[in-house]
Amino acid sequence: MKQGLSLKVSQHLALTPQLQQSIRLLQLSTLELSSEVEQMLDENPFLELEDDHAPREEFGLTRADTRVSEGDRASESALDSGAGGSDDSGAEGASDADFPGQEGWEGDGSVEVTPDDGEWGGEAPARLSGASDGDDELDPGERPAPQESLTEHLHRQALSLRLTPEDMAALRFLIESLNDDGYLEDSLAQLAATLTDSDDDLEQLEELVHRFTMALKLLQSLEPAGVGARDLAECLTLQLKALREDAGDDEERQHTIATALAVCAQHGAMESLAKRDAKRLAQATGATEDEIRAAMQLISRLEPKPGRRFADVERNVVVPDVIVSMVGGGSQPRFRVQLNPDVMPRLRVHDIYANALRGGKGGENHQALVQRLQEARWFIKNIQQRFDTILRVSQAIVERQKNFFVHGELAMRPMVQRELADELGVHESTISRVTTAKYMATPQGTFELKYFFGSALGTETGGNASSTAVRALIKQFIAAESATKPLSDNQLADMLKEQGIDCARRTVAKYREAMRIPVASLRKAVA
Fold first, then answer.
1. What is the radius of gyration, based on Cα positions, of the chain?
2. Do strands 464-466 and 456-458 pair parallel, antiparallel, or not at all (unpaired)?
3. pLDDT tens track for 120-157
4. Strands (DSSP E) along 4-127, which ranges?
5. Side-chain-side CA neighbours of residue 425 (13 Å)
6. CA dist list (Å): 326 to 23, 157, 435
7. Which H, E and C letters describe 338-351, residue by residue?
8. Cβ pair 121, 346 in contact under 8 A
9. What is the pTM of this model?
10. What SS3 class is residue 442?
11. 226 neighbors 235 (Cβ within 8 angstroms)
12. Which residue of 101, 216, 410, 510 lies most exposed, with the fewest beta carbons within 10 A?
């Protein structure tokens, strides 16, 4: 084996910590970015929000030489000496800020306050944490009442029942065991087993099951109708029984309700109802198809989730990163693209700490503090680069999709991420990171940036149509279809072909399923 030395030249990409942080910040959503900023503010003492300390320091400097009144002096004598310490700290901060530089500074040469150390995002107006003046003027009676939950609604009804303490406890236990839709998912035996110490105590278990059985009947008699059901068929049955009590002497309605009850009692009835299979249900119940259709119409108006209206679902309000507004009008309107100031953090390097670091070069842990200062500057620059990239991509999207902002989805042009990456001179992965979980508020609504990208479908004229525009056209066709004769996927494909768009049936089915539109057989209305 012969040994020797050789030289080899190669290139490789090294991801510095600053570049890694830039890539990570770029793919964060607005909420994730806010959490990241808060974490950096907690960890890095050289980083601060612009409006954290300025108002307080300004107030202290302007009032430093004001004479103290006799009343204030008497009040201060009753306080501890901690108030005096704050004045001393303010004086120390002022002296640190005026500390002259030293020629022997051996750091990175940029500890002094640079333009990048000032606040970034200063054009963004400060957001108030409290309510606005208009809210303060509202009458307390006009404020919206808190949403009542399903359990609170049922507990309030239970208070009007005259029950023994044991039965009331059983009823309350069942109420607390309901899910958000109002269903009782566990069996009574399973619920009773959770309250017994061991499986050997069968007598106690049977007693609990008996009490829960009685309590379940009481629960199912409460409002809303259908609450406490174990499955969908029982839920619909409970609602139909409540309707039967309210029907009175209306024989036709009573007959329809009876037919609907017979349908719900059949095994596998829910599957047949979903398929609108009136013929099969008629054979199973012995009723005519017309009676089954009337019963199906009645069942379709029932609530499959009794607890739906009590669900206090917090709406996920989408805060847009970019705002697009129309400037001027006429035949060729112009659009202005700007970043949302509410999502831009107003960060700056703490100038007092940065200047104090210049005078403490020989102190302990000096190099670690210099590194923290550099990390603060990196973070501010990476945040700025993140928003600059989002703005550039958004401006390019608006420039390419102008017709969409004027005419809507049908005017969307085909566009892929590679085209935009080539135009802006960035990698395609950068476009993917920018357009993920970033939103744009437009005159047509608020959309994720990914929404504006779509593949191209060929047309008879040799041009291309955007897949987004084709989906919008399919939705338009379905919205205008006959309720008794809905359009099949083949018919939709033929209608698209008449519009000059070559789209296969399988592609139509894929787009329809993506829009969560059921097949024609399930869209057909009951006659």
1. 35
2. antiparallel
3. 444 444 333 333 444 444 444 444 456 788 899 999 99
4. 47-49
5. 0
6. 32, 53, 22
7. EECHHHCCCEEECH
8. yes
9. 0.60
10. strand
11. yes
12. 101
